[in-house]
Design brief:
There is one protein chain. This protein is α/β, with parallel strands linked by helices. The protein has one domain: NAD(P)-binding Rossmann-like Domain (Rossmann fold, 3-Layer(aba) Sandwich), CATH 3.40.50. 43% of the residues lie in helices and 15% in strands. It has seven helices and seven strands. The longest helix is centred in the middle third of the chain and has 29 residues. It binds nicotinamide-adenine-dinucleotide (NAD). The site of nicotinamide-adenine-dinucleotide has 27 residues, from α1. Nicotinamide-adenine-dinucleotide binds next to α1.
């Protein structure tokens, strides 16, 4: 028995890392998937890996662009008939700048992609899900959304905001049978860290917190968490913020 048989899911940032692993696992478990990413080549490679599965369609765009974010929901409904699952996964890191080192450009980029994007998709999704009797929104936050020393100020604030969005949606939409949960990964082997900005205060102050991490996860170890939370097995899990960090922040 497949765990997401005939469900319809949107996954943002589906071209790489955690989002890609979630897209492939959801397809394997019977879901119809709208995979979105800003990088067309990554989406083409996902389509290839999914062996041109007709249950996968892709859309290229910037999730911080309201029109693109909203179009993902209408595309899911028009193509597959309804929407059951939204995974707000697309995200970017800052350069580990402490607040005193923060530029407007980095702040605005991180906040619009990591916070505005999930707000736009969620705003459209709760309408579609409410009309259809319910659904699940899974937000990929971070342990940077729980603590102050794992990233720069912009990323830390953005992921704290994602957790706030999660609890807000969970509370407001529980009567409409819409669940909303957040996953807080620790380190994961993906393409998110392109450079190490070793000269920032934020980076230097992150070092003692990084020293206690035993290992980074494979993206597939996060995808299985997202599978459970999307499935009916998690029917009573709403508003939860689930850390998946191998114990890094437990000590
Ligand atoms: N890798 C980690 O250690 C880690 C830890 C905690 C949380 N996370 C979170 O997991 C999520 C996924 O990150 P990942 O590590 O898989 O990174 P990744 O860079 O491998 O994948 C992210 C994908 O999102 C896409 N993307 C970036 N900006 C976009 C935009 N503006 N519009 C649409 N798509 C965009 C990228 O093209 C990429 O394909 C992010 O929200 C990230 O903050 C990652």
């Amino acid at each position: 028995m497949m765990r997401l048989q005939d469900k319809v899911a949107i996954i943002t940032g589906a071209g790489s890392g955690i989002g890609r692993a979630i897209a492939l696992l959801y397809l394997k478990e019977g879901a119809n998937v709208v995979g979105a990413d800003i990088d067309q080549a990554r989406l083409d490679s996902l389509t290839q890996e999914a062996k041109a599965d007709s249950r996968l369609i892709t859309r290229t765009g910037n999730i911080a662009d309201k029109a693109h974010a909203e179009e993902l929901v209408s595309t899911a409904v028009q193509t597959f008939g309804h929407l059951d699952i939204l995974v707000n996964n697309a995200g970017v890191v800052d350069g580990f700048e402490a607040v005193g080192e923060m530029s407007d450009a980095i702040w605005n980029r991180v906040m619009t992609i990591n916070v505005n994007g999930p707000m736009y998709t969620s705003r459209s999704a709760v309408k579609a899900m409410g009309d259809a009797g319910g659904g699940v929104i899974i937000n990929i936050a971070s342990i940077g959304g729980l603590f102050g020393g794992r990233a720069g100020a912009a990323y830390t604030v953005s992921k704290h905001a994602v957790i706030g969005l999660t609890r807000s949606i969970a509370w407001h939409y529980a009567p409409q049978n819409i669940r909303c949960v957040a996953i807080c990964p620790g380190g994961v082997e993906t393409n998110i860290m392109t450079s190490m900005p070793e000269d920032t205060l934020g980076w230097q102050r992150a070092q003692p917190t990084f020293a206690t991490n035993l290992r980074a996860a494979k993206p597939e170890e996060l995808a299985t968490v997202a599978l459970f939370l999307a499935s009916d097995e998690a029917s009573f899990v709403n508003g939860a913020v689930l850390t998946a960090d191998g114990g890094w922040t437990a000590g």
